[in-house]
Amino acid sequence: MLRLSFASAVVFSHAWPLGGFGPEPTQFFGPAFVTAGSNAVNGFFFISGFLVTGSWCSGCGAEAYLRARIARIWPGYVVCFFASALIAALAAGSDGLGYLRSIPIRDYFAGALAFKWQVLERPLAFPHLPWYQSVNEALWTIPFEVGCYLGVAGAGVIGLLHRRGLVLLGAALCLVLAAHDAACDPEKAAGNWPRFGSFFGMGAVFFLYRESISRKSWLAVGAAGALLGAWHSALAACLVAPIAGGYLLLYAAYHAPAWSKRLGAHPDISYGTYLYAFPVQQLYYQCALANRVPNSPWMNFGVSLAVALCLGWLSWRWVERPAQRLIRRL
Fold this sequence. Notes:
Strand content: under 5%
Distance between the termini: 31 Å
Oligomer: single chain
Largest sheet: none
Number of helices: 14
């Protein structure tokens, strides 16, 4: 449910800038570069660090771990990569075939196999929209996620995950580096490794110390207060958010009502929803440019989220789940 909520927050966050409507509503309550979408991505990485570290520590072994991670990320990404190209071609109308031909064959392979999503950005892709040439920029976080997966595998192979104090030290180092980047250039820091390493790393730390962490209401209130206190400072937020925000996420997860735990669990459409929303939102604004739909960020959010949820279900039903079953049999 949390991951599905985060995917929805990313769709909400993109609805305003993609249509040229300025900052999204939540940006008025914090730094200009902090959005609902950026906080949602942070939450994705924290939860991923918690769960993926647990996957390794389950004792499945390196081979089974890597198979599971490949099955979770790569098939859905590859299909979405080519689907995004088709959406951009559809939006280009009579120039659609020209757009597809403008991408060299080798770039298609690089984009699909090496997560080079930038190859989709061509002059014929949404040329009249505020974010012209942008086909699916939501894919930019996937290489960071893959890097974190490989980091867990490397740490597990050398036995680092059995020394949780060293993992805590590594996560603390990422916090310090992220704070340094935020102090130097807050906007650039959002796309640097320390940001993702700090949230993913703290998720791993919370898993390794899970039996020692009390889930108390007064601690959750204190964590919320710490977040509010650090909200308007990029430097403070980098130091506080992975810890206090992570605690709040786990508190919410463990204290959530039973019905919410079933929501979004089967099928797990959060990944597919996140993958497909961006090109769908761009296509919506392309239709708005032709006066086929209302040019409204709220309408974009509602319609695009509904379509992305459906595509997320299709991705899970016909791509992600079959790929997971197939790779496990190999």
